[in-house]
Amino acid sequence: MRSTEVKNRTSTDGIKSLRLITAVKTPYLPDGRFDLEAYDSLINTQINGGAEGVIVGGTTGEGHLMSWDEHIMLIGHTVNCFGANIKVIGNTGSNSTREAVHATEQGFAVGMHAALHVNPYYGKTSTEGLISHFKEVLPMGPTIIYNVPSRTSQDIPPPVIEALSCYSNMAGVKECVGHERVKCYTDKGITIWSGNDDECHDSRWKYGATGVISVASNLVPGLMHSLMFEGENAALNEKLLPLMKWLFCEPNPIGLNTALAQLGVVRPVFRLPYTPLPLEKRVEFVRIVEAIGRENFVGQKEAQVLDDDDFVLISRY
Amino acid sequence: MRSTEVKNRTSTDGIKSLRLITAVKTPYLPDGRFDLEAYDSLINTQINGGAEGVIVGGTTGEGHLMSWDEHIMLIGHTVNCFGANIKVIGNTGSNSTREAVHATEQGFAVGMHAALHVNPYYGKTSTEGLISHFKEVLPMGPTIIYNVPSRTSQDIPPPVIEALSCYSNMAGVKECVGHERVKCYTDKGITIWSGNDDECHDSRWKYGATGVISVASNLVPGLMHSLMFEGENAALNEKLLPLMKWLFCEPNPIGLNTALAQLGVVRPVFRLPYTPLPLEKRVEFVRIVEAIGRENFVGQKEAQVLDDDDFVLISRY
Amino acid sequence: MRSTEVKNRTSTDGIKSLRLITAVKTPYLPDGRFDLEAYDSLINTQINGGAEGVIVGGTTGEGHLMSWDEHIMLIGHTVNCFGANIKVIGNTGSNSTREAVHATEQGFAVGMHAALHVNPYYGKTSTEGLISHFKEVLPMGPTIIYNVPSRTSQDIPPPVIEALSCYSNMAGVKECVGHERVKCYTDKGITIWSGNDDECHDSRWKYGATGVISVASNLVPGLMHSLMFEGENAALNEKLLPLMKWLFCEPNPIGLNTALAQLGVVRPVFRLPYTPLPLEKRVEFVRIVEAIGRENFVGQKEAQVLDDDDFVLISRY
Amino acid sequence: MRSTEVKNRTSTDGIKSLRLITAVKTPYLPDGRFDLEAYDSLINTQINGGAEGVIVGGTTGEGHLMSWDEHIMLIGHTVNCFGANIKVIGNTGSNSTREAVHATEQGFAVGMHAALHVNPYYGKTSTEGLISHFKEVLPMGPTIIYNVPSRTSQDIPPPVIEALSCYSNMAGVKECVGHERVKCYTDKGITIWSGNDDECHDSRWKYGATGVISVASNLVPGLMHSLMFEGENAALNEKLLPLMKWLFCEPNPIGLNTALAQLGVVRPVFRLPYTPLPLEKRVEFVRIVEAIGRENFVGQKEAQVLDDDDFVLISRY
């Protein structure tokens, strides 16, 4: 079904060169639909802050809480409005091969520059099944494989990645397993993005990673840009670690959603099963903002604590 | 949910000025999925032939045989690849207000320039219901209302159109009811596109219509451009009438689908309930092409008759 | 995909014998979801009133305003709760062959006793396309074909029906075209249900129709039962005509929806594009109830006029 | 939206008493659609073999590879054909609260007796989010909570279960974490089903579990029935352990799918990302069948090894 119109194509090499990719938050209206005005503002902030790519509907962007038509629409929207200024990487992965195939086909048809593919979480499969799954989608366009065993319950072992490396569309791996794994890949010339904000500085400067696919860059894009572009900087890394630790005190994107609402750049609306961090954590966030400097964070408003009642939790949307 | 990114916005006036809009055919692969390569080629041919807009997934494009995710994907694809060169008008109408609202919201989110909205066919409704239906979608962006009682079983009467004319997004009407109705509207300054190829010359030059939303322009875009742009031309109109008559000998797009397959620009694949025209009609088409001149038709190959066995009919896709 | 479990199967002859089939209303909660408690009560009333079958999600039941998953769920629910006491006929027809095939397969899988299939409205097709469309679904189970040109814009001509009569699953036709057409079929031994309440008495007793697929029986099931079972009764027919005329003063089910709300058996909730009848018509309905006798209507409460403000109109659900 | 028709209701106590529940396999046709004839035969075999309940579309039944409409249809079909003879427990859980709410509402509407709810896998959430998620669905009907950290990457800790135990619909927990956890719950009177075939004998007879939700019972229902009903039987348990070990040598249901195809009761069709076990494992299975006795397994045909070419792998369906 692939289109040959080249207008929106990016070479796999074009993807391999990206150092700062943000797994962008999806903001909601009070009825649970997408808040596209807030979304557009987040993307513009990312572009201005130096992010070179965005993951649309990643786990951070709550792709698993979207219907596929919402998801593809958001990819198409992002390409249409921002595709000239930032690489749009659609998380069209799924634990169902059928869904991954369908979504990836549609995502490339609406112009996404690359696909992010996770291994089949929850259902899991054999090594042969893993390879078969990825082989169904790799021919469609530039692809980043995503390894996050702490979510999928199943590590993608290096032999699988190596078996897929012959595909010209294989851009690299978003790897969450740690420095040793990163080094094992980069030694072989495989492009790696760190999937852990707290490890990305060392992965980048000590273990050969190309860059990061970041959650924290939703909040402090400029600082994350510095961390990836301006050479080793242990002081900056140290300064950011309390933020990163706070961000992941509960499963992501709970922290991020809470933080962006506190910064006044998204409405405090949560799609269940996510709920905001509790009051003491919100107080802590305001202190972290102060410590790092409000000017380094997205948005213009003062960071607020917000009351429990300020949050809207949605189960039907 | 509306985005404020202005990049893809077109003013309602920008829509009102279009004279030649093609209700473009959707071509299929043998398994029934979209054939995007053939589609892209059709759109490029339209742009080169002088069409200023396309209806994506109209009745001609078989929007009623698409799932909504296919439909929105095709709109997004068209905007992404061709939106700078042609106006993309998504047929996001439905006889279900819910579906029309959802699809229109998504269509504008992926960048379509205008929506085409039909009245609720089959289910039908009261005059009050008609107005309520259209009022749900008109605030979303530039809109063309489509009146085709021979499909919907219900005429949209002029008072409804007049009641909607106060909306700044109301671009005009694709009207199929005839010259008198066209004149009634154009006398009042309402923009009209003829929805009947065989009437469009007179509608344009004698009754004040702005242009046509055409099926025939899928086949002879240059001649339809002449018909709409180069002044009264009864001879050209006369020359085209046998083609137009042939095209509508069975419900559209049966004739068009058959013709484009015979011209070698789409695969001879039909989604049921459409089936190709019979052999004698296919023979007749080749003669019509000869009479009008092959060079005026899209595609480069010789027009072929095709055998019954050449056609693939699909019910599951 | 057909199951061979015979538990819920009904022979085609079992369908052919039904005289009173109600095209049952789908009631809604204030948020637009189905009101299953009210629905169950409506079905029980139909069973007690003598209806032998129900059409689930017909045009009266607003199948065209349902998502397919809602539609199949409602069929499955009806079979599960009431299938032992009333025949459940799912309106799994569509103008898209794909959708008709998918829905019919699912409907029979959840136990519906027969399918109702309309010809492709709005999109329309050729005679050959009509036959191809129906042939895709007829092998799946007992089938009633529905001919309503005032909605579909295309008559199903007798040769099509005759071509389909060889299928053992072909139960008969819900015919709306009038007495002459009815007689033409019944003379040939084809089972016919009148699709027009105001003609059903004469169709049944003078032109050989087996019975009626009725809207009015939602309101007065016992009287409609008499009309179909107890021999010619011009007086009763005459008595009911003002109600039938009122019911269809606007496209069905606008009148029915308004009436059932006035009778207190459903919430006054409308899915757009349907809106309630205006005040003067609602006053008229109360008078019609008085004339025919409240005891002949469904529900126990006094018929009320209801204010405009009592009605809830929904576009997102 | 809940129906009050009581015909298909089962009390929570009715669910709590079940000792042998089979997480039934979903068989496919060569095009990937459900093979309902084979499915019906599997269910009949379960009923005859003594299973008291089935999980429809569990992880074993590959609910994660179904569209929701397929899933609800299969629940409705099972209730309709077999609901009088076996309890039908729909796996209407999801990592998206919206999907869980929608599917559970639909599942109960088509008559399922209970819902199985997993915690949000992959996306994960906070403890507060977990509780909020389950509270959205618990009011809908009898519910079994499913804890399988090896798939979800997140343990449901006892305090969450205890917080939910106040709901009258809370039937119990399918627990995979081990004997100690099982005992912790059964000591408090919470109903537990073992989610691990190889532990279920001891869980049942030594740690107070009520029974098992079994994969192995797809193959040897009678022996699993003995294991749960006929008192401690270390010899039988020992005899079955090689089968259980074989079944889970790759992520379930890879082994089960392979085994049922080898036994000739389902077609050798796999929806990706599942692929069959390799030849040496298939040879091993035949030996295991011989050791346990062919007569104890489902089906009548001789157990076959099958060639690689016999298997059909499907990615679009």
TrEMBL record, chains A, B, C, D:
It holds the Pfam family DHDPS. GO terms for biological process: diaminopimelate biosynthetic process; lysine biosynthetic process via diaminopimelate. Pathway: Amino-acid biosynthesis; L-lysine biosynthesis via DAP pathway; (S)-tetrahydrodipicolinate from L-aspartate: step 3/4. Keywords: Amino-acid biosynthesis, Diaminopimelate biosynthesis, Lyase, Lysine biosynthesis, Schiff base. One of its GO terms (molecular function) is 4-hydroxy-tetrahydrodipicolinate synthase activity. Its EC number is 4.3.3.7. Coiled coil: none annotated. The keyword Amino-acid biosynthesis applies. It is an enzyme of class 4 (lyase). It catalyses: L-aspartate 4-semialdehyde + pyruvate = (2S,4S)-4-hydroxy-2,3,4,5-tetrahydrodipicolinate + H2O + H(+). The active site is at 146 (proton donor/acceptor), 174 (schiff-base intermediate with substrate). Pyruvate binds at residues 60, 213. Belongs to the DapA family. Catalyzes the condensation of (S)-aspartate-beta-semialdehyde [(S)-ASA] and pyruvate to 4-hydroxy-tetrahydrodipicolinate (HTPA). This is 4-hydroxy-tetrahydrodipicolinate synthase. The lineage of its organism: Eukaryota, Viridiplantae, Streptophyta, Embryophyta, Tracheophyta.
